[in-house]
Amino acid sequence: MHAETTANDRKAAATAVFKDMPREPGVPKPDPILVVDNVVRRFGGLTAVDVEHVEIQRGAITALIGPNGAGKTTFFNQLTGFDTADSGSWTFNGRAMNGVPPHKVARNGMVRTFQLTKALSRLTVIENMRLGAQRQKGENFWRALVPAFWTGQEDEITERADDLLRRFKLDAKREDFAGSLSGGQRKLLEMARALMVEPELVMLDEPMAGVNPALTQSLLGHVKDLREQGMTVLFVEHDMDMVRDISDWVIVMAQGTVIAEGPPSTIMSDERVVDAYLGAHHDAPLSDSELQAQLQDAEAELEAEIEEETQK
Amino acid sequence: MDWITILSTTIKSAVGVETVLYALAAIGINIHFGYTGLLNFGQAAFMAVAGYGLAVTVTVMGLPFWVGIIVGLVAAAVLALLLGIPTLHLRADYLAIVTIAGAEIIRLVFRSVAFKDIFGGSDGRRGFGTGFQELNPFPPGDYGFNLGPIPLFFAHWQLWVMLVGWVLIAVCCLIVYLVMKSPWGRVLKAIREDEDAVRSLGKNVFSYKMQSLVLGGVIGCLGGFIYGLAYGSVQPDVFGTETTFYLYTMVILGGAARVFGPVVGSMLFWVLLVLLNGTLSEAVAAGVITFIDANQAGALRYVFVGLGLILLLVFRPQGIFGDKREIAIDAR
């Protein structure tokens, strides 16, 4: 019973924080774990990400949504060091993180999963889990040669891994190759493995993609669990039912920028969000005359431009 | 047909000098390719810098034999760093291209006319084995026994090289066994499966790939020493790309990512090659086969080895020691 009350407390605390928060993009949060400023990533002429300012509240579940091609995954890659931002800066727990290589980002407590699940196929499930543990003595070549240096720590790691496997109901698969798991089980394994790092911020890139409905409920439960254990969650997702169900706050991206923020209950009725998903004039059909006028305007503009070019 | 000679040479080749030196180099390839997934197509270059490091130090500079060994080991480690620094940040295929090109550059430098004073051109270097043979504890003579009618004898100098070689193989296998069941080896195997996943778990992938490249290169260079010491000479063309491809054949034959895979692979490879060679050339000499001559028989054995490898990959892709489940996962 006690655990349940604290769980509800955390949910309530997160809800209380966001209660009267303005719905503007980049709104300041009372206790941000991650603060992002002016992150820009261009691929040739295409600006994939251009985020002016965004803050992620500690201890809450924040969803990052947006139409396809909005730059959500690219933004994730910038923050975790898997891709280099053209400019911008961000701090995690007050520490600057721009230009930090991915393995150091993870060591600092900011761990991500991938949209296309990366199970290490020809390693067993338990070996996948053990790999996640940090500061392993046996990961040094010279110490690896003498098992006495690392077997003690290995036992502790294995115990922690077995606990997590039980929680994620993967303990029956312990000795199987990760490559033999189903898609949903791989998602579970990837999440459990990320927890072996003991992160403060868990970043999930589409945790529900390709998971069958039966497993969805269990995955949702696990994500909520993370908050209850005091972790912060930032996740990218397309499934709005899931976003409504588990997130405390929603950030909406479109064409590389953050266009709106708000609580999950009302965010989908926000005009800017509807525009981004369906287009600004989705409910205003163009008449023929309006179309003609627009075309003429565009032509006139082009002609003026050409004239300008030839005069140079 | 002289079956006694054929069987004698075949059985001796299972433990002979060639098997030893290729097994050592193949253990290195197994660390690179089998465990870490690094496509190093320049293993012959690691053997070459070791062999030449020893040869040049002793013959040109007149230094003792053990200094030559140190020079060779350092040269192999430096070569691994030089090949790795520009390529290990990139995708796996770049390492393959750079190593194959680097190995050819090294071979061509060793055989070039410009450096003939140092490396001896296409004739290579000879006469640096005395320091090693002075340490030989076996008095001159032939050692061995008769297996029924089949004589199995090695000269004392061969036996000395083989003894050192097999001790080195045992030590290398022990090292591979220890590190590959440790957390260090777990990181290497994870890198083989997916680098980005390993990065996301806080491991410095570049550093581990470099450690793997150096370890496999240094173990591989021991094969170069054994070659130089067994034949008392090095020639540049011994270290061509086909040597590297034989090594890959052995690793796949024995089973990649298995401790004894490369050793058994090397034994099988040489046993098959020597058996085919002996049988074919005896058959030609005895007039049993009339449509090819003795030289063609030598080339034909490689045709059969290639055919054998194709059949192996079709019917037992995991090699002798491999686990069929792993191959099945790959096919997904």
From TrEMBL, chain A:
Keywords: ATP-binding, Nucleotide-binding, Transport
A Pfam match: BCA_ABC_TP_C
Protein name per the record: Branched-chain amino acid transport system ATP-binding protein
GO molecular function: ATP binding; ATP hydrolysis activity
Region of interest (Disordered), ranges: 293-312
Compositional bias (Acidic residues): 298-312
Entry-linked InterPro entries: AAA+_ATPase, ABC_AA/LPS_Transport, ABC_transporter-like_ATP-bd, ABC_transporter-like_CS, BCA_ABC_TP_C, P-loop_NTPase
Source organism, top-level taxon: Bacteria
Boundaries of every ABC transporter domain copy: 34-280
GO terms under cellular component: plasma membrane
Annotated SMART domains: AAA
TrEMBL record, chain B:
A Pfam family it matches: BPD_transp_2
Major subcellular location class: membrane
Recorded GO MF terms: branched-chain amino acid transmembrane transporter activity
Keywords carried by this UniProt record: Cell membrane, Membrane, Transmembrane, Transmembrane helix
Cellular component terms per the entry's GO annotation: plasma membrane
Membrane topology reported for the UniProt record: Multi-pass membrane protein
Residues that span the membrane, as ranges: 6-31, 38-59, 65-85, 157-179, 213-233, 245-261, 268-292, 298-315
Localization per Swiss-Prot or TrEMBL: Cell membrane
InterPro entries on file: ABC_transp_permease (IPR001851), LivM-like (IPR043428)
Annotated PANTHER family: HIGH-AFFINITY BRANCHED-CHAIN AMINO ACID TRANSPORT PROTEIN BRAE, HIGH-AFFINITY BRANCHED-CHAIN AMINO ACID TRANSPORT SYSTEM PERMEASE
Protein name: Branched-chain amino acid transport system permease protein
Organism: Nonomuraea maritima
